[in-house]
Amino acid sequence: MIEKPTINTDRRIPPGRGWLALSPVIVFLLLYVMVSVILDDFYKMPIAVALVVASMWAVAIYRGHPLMERIETFSRAAGHFNILYMIWVFVLAGAFATIAKEIGAIDATVNLTLRFFPPEFVVPTMFFAACFISLSVGTSVGTVVALTPLAVEIAQMAEANTAFYVAVVLGGAFFGDNLSFISDTTIAATRSQGCNMADKFKANLWIALPAALVTLIAYIIMGQDTPPIQLAQESDYMLILPYIVV
Questions:
Q1: Which of 150, 175, 181, 223 is the most exposed place for a label (fewest CB within 10 A)?
Q2: Main-chain dihedrals φ then ψ at residue 68, nearest 5 degrees
Q3: Does one domain contain both 24 and 140?
Q4: Predicted confidence (pLDDT) per residue in 55-68, tens digit
Q5: Boundary (domain end) residue, out of 78, 103, 120
Q6: Lowest model confidence (mean pLDDT) among 8-17, 64-73, 192-201, 235-244
C-alpha cells in the first residue's frame, strides 16, 4: 500500500515574523504620534513624511532579495488597483471637503440647523450636523477640523463646557465616517475583503445607528438648560446643496 505524501496545511506565521511584517504600520503610528506630541499639534506632522519613512522601513526588512527587486515588489503592491481606488476616493473626498469649507457650506449647514431648532436642541443639532457632514464628505478628521472651531464658538456663546461641545462633534464625525460610501476606510475594507459596499453599510448601520440614537436622546436631555444663542451672520442655505447631492 502506497502512502500518500503528507501536506503541511498549517499556514500560521511565527510570532516573530508576524510582528516584523506589521512593523511598518507600527513605525508609521509611532513616528506620527511621537512627533505630534513633541510639537503639541497633531496637524503639524505631515502624514506623507511618516508614510515615506514607514515605506523605507518596509523595503529594508524585506531581506533575501536585491534592493531593486525589493523596491519593485513594494511598488507593484502599492500600485494594486484596490490601493489606487482607495487613494483616488481619498483625494477626491478631501478636495470636496476643502471646497465645501471654503465656499461656506459648513457654516451654512450649522446655521441652518441652529436657526430652525430651539436653544435646548443646540447640542443634538451639533451632533446631527457632524453626522450629516461626515456622511457626505467621507472623512471624520476633515469634519472635526471644520466643525471644531464652530463648536468652540457656540460653546463660548452658550457659556457651556467647550470640551463637551468638541466631544459632540467628534462623536458625530465618527458616526458619519462609519457609514459613508466615500470613506477611505470603507473603500479599503470592502475592496480588500471582496464584499459589496451595500452589505458593509447594512452591517455597520445596525451597529452605529442604535448607538447614535441613544447618544442623540442623551444629548437632548443634557441640553435642556442651554441659553438662547445669537447667530453671528446670515448664510446662504443653497450652499448645503453639495452635501445633499453627495
A1: 181
A2: -65, -35
A3: no
A4: 899 888 888 888 88
A5: 78
A6: 8-17
